[in-house]
Amino acid sequence: MEKRVVITGAGIVHALGNELDEFWGNIVAGKSGISKIEGFDAEEFPSQIAAEIKDFDPGDYIDRKEAKRMALYTQYAIVSSLKALENAELELTDEIADRAGVIVGSGIGGIEVFEEQVGKLHKRGPRRVSPFFIPMMISNMAAGNVAIYANAKGPNLNTVTACASGTSAIGEAFETIKRGAADIMIAGGTEAAITPSALAGFGNMKALSTRNDDPQAASRPFDKDRDGFIMGEGAGIVILEELETARARGANIVAEIVGYGASGDAYHITSPAPEGEGASRAMQAAIDRAGIDLNNIDYINAHGTSTPLNDEYESTAIKNVFGEHAYELKVSSSKSMTGHLLGAAGGVEAIVTAMAVKNDIVPPTMNFNEGGKGCDLDYQPNKAGEKEIKAALSNSFGFGGQNACILLKKYED
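Above: the chain sequence. Below: its structure as tokens.
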């Protein structure tokens, strides 16, 4: 009999809250975490707003001396992972440690460390570069440090699939348990890329909204007046367990993960494939993996970036996969409130999707007034709704044409 995989805990670090209940409450209320950037002077940048974390203190979880030797994205990952374990009421003792693994995705890694140390190199010479530069910056260090802090000695890796990284991590963790390589997986995404170089790079490629005078209305997925995404930062981590392992310890099961699909556009480094062809295949693969009837899927947490091409092509992809049922589905983009967390987006949105399934609540797409070209689905505009959600998809699509989707369903014995 094939193994079943369930979500038993979640941990979050985000501008909308560093505790799960607070974060979810703000999502349901339609609150925005987007504001003027305060971490550095952004006045000369085309986009000057982001979902920036302003109250993060790792001190309760990470020794302050150790924290100084970690990039911020790693700190976010450790704190959210330990919070997820607390939420799952799970301790990885030595007896189970070798059956517990970690997959944490990050699209960029320690970019603020890179900026700082390269600046020192050019201004003060090679001897001033920190000996911790490389182990702080590289993108696998979040997963490596999470394992150290959590005592997880099973499979350990990181996924780098741009903005699909967090969903890729959860999907691969799901498959790791399904094939019997682990019983427990800590999985999700983390990112801390609100830095001058990242903001300049995304801004100069015209990917970001420049609605600087109205930050909370700037992220407007599927709306005809959308003009780009808003950067966000933080981490979203879930605890996945093999069902019998979870049952044996009396775990509280949030939702069951039943499908994972991945695809490549093989088309362009930044633009999605026309008509969302690659996205369609990823969604279909997740549905096929789950063996679920299309009509039993009630909600899609869309990638929904608030960029012109993504929102149009994702809507088209949903229609291609679901046919007439696409118009009966609820679709929403939590990025309208959270901003786009890049490699962490999928981790955060997996939590939103799991909570939606558990609570039968459809999160809103804020700032939606009128659909843009091809955007004619039910995007749950501006207010959360109540609806029985038997199953739900969470979509993530990244630069390089890398697509990942996971399918969650309400847990039943």
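The longest helix spans residues 72-87.
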